[in-house]
Prior knowledge:
- The structure holds two protein chains of two kinds.
- By secondary structure, chain A is mainly beta.
- Chain A has one domain: Sandwich (Protocatechuate 3,4-Dioxygenase, subunit A).
- Chain A has helices at about 40-45, 190, 195-200, 230-240; strands at about 35, 75-85, 95-100, 125-130, 135-140, 145-150, 155, 160-165, 175-180, 205, 220, 225.
- In chain B, about 10% of the residues lie in helices and about 25% in strands.
- Chain B has three helices and nine strands.
- Chain B has helices at about 15-20, 20-25, 145-150, and strands spanning about 45-55, 65-70, 85-90, 95-100, 115-120, 130-135, 160, 165-170, 180.
- The interface between A and B is large, with 88 and 78 residues.
- The complex binds fe (ii) ion.
- Fe (ii) ion binds near residues 156, 159 and 161 of chain A.
Amino acid sequence: xxxxxxxxxxxxxxxxxxxxxxxxxxxxxxxxxxxxxxxxxxxxxxxxxxxxxxxxxxxxxxxxxxxxxxxxxxxxxxxxxxxxxxxxxxxxxxxxxxxxxxxxxxxxxxxxxxxxxxxxxxxxxxxxxxxxxxxxxxxxxxxxxxxxxxxxxxxxxxxxxxxxxxxxxxxxxxxxxxxxxxxxxxxxxxxxxxxxxxxxxxxxxxxxxxxxxxxxxxxxxxxxxxxxxxxxxxxxxxxxx
Amino acid sequence: xxxxxxxxxxxxxxxxxxxxxxxxxxxxxxxxxxxxxxxxxxxxxxxxxxxxxxxxxxxxxxxxxxxxxxxxxxxxxxxxxxxxxxxxxxxxxxxxxxxxxxxxxxxxxxxxxxxxxxxxxxxxxxxxxxxxxxxxxxxxxxxxxxxxxxxxxxxxxxxxxxxxxxxxxxxxxxxxxxxxx
Lengths: 241, 181
Ligand SMILES: [Fe+2]
């Protein structure tokens, strides 16, 4: 099953390498078209992670950088969802890594000098594994919007960065999660570099009152999809096994 | 059920917080170990692979994150106590060089020994996949180098005293070959 190739990536669905409104792409976007090559064992395989790779607080950004008895400042949220492939199959046992700014929009990073203060109790880094049904969950605080140098009055919508592993390196994905109702989504060139509103909508998490815990913490739902398998090859291989 | 892949977004300039926390300066975090930093046990006689990413003005990209994925010396993609096939490093924030300690991959069928490299950074909207081959191996007959044709040279690393160095050019006359795979 791991040997069935992945479906071709629909490059017109993803943001183009060069996007006029996102200045950093101008000198970093390749100018030649990508070269199509057949998938080999190199792209069909990838690293495998287990619980032993993680620490007990890795999925709790509210406490994983906090002093004992303290918690991060900000609006407490659970972010959860299911990791599936394009065929709708859950993808279990995969590493999801997240990073984000604090409630004031400041990153704990040597290169971030934004004037909003750091929070002594917030690092902004978390990770978890998807369970047997592809589900993941972590606790954090609502990140703040922040300004960034792009030639104008540019502010990022509140967002959480996601790094996701699949079965094969061809599925490797980095993306960002946004929050429903944020007016900055329509104004942000990084978001708007995604060609269709339909595609942008896949990155917008929804408030989830079912998972929200009364008097404790709100929940947002964010489902993630990785490349699926090529159906014809997949079925042929099944027949052969 | 048919779904569409989640659209990609840039890793941004602060990717290290999530993927290489030591580079971001997050030493005090109460989290598990940094992943991908060690491909061989400490003390192993490994080669140094120095990867530099250059932008369209030949300036080093100093905020990139690079992952490599390769066969072990035995040609297999199965990790052993002596070798992890996956490595991850940030470009040095001041020099732009990403340093990996690794072992040379073995040959796998018709494919010459190679390392997959995946690059994400601010200004890169979809992670870039390329390969790196070795100047001191027989690369003739490798099907991927064959497809790259005249641009195959951009995929060959150079030998150094301690291992290999490789420059990935995002733009320009010698732009590196990136794959849709
Ligand atoms: Fe960000």
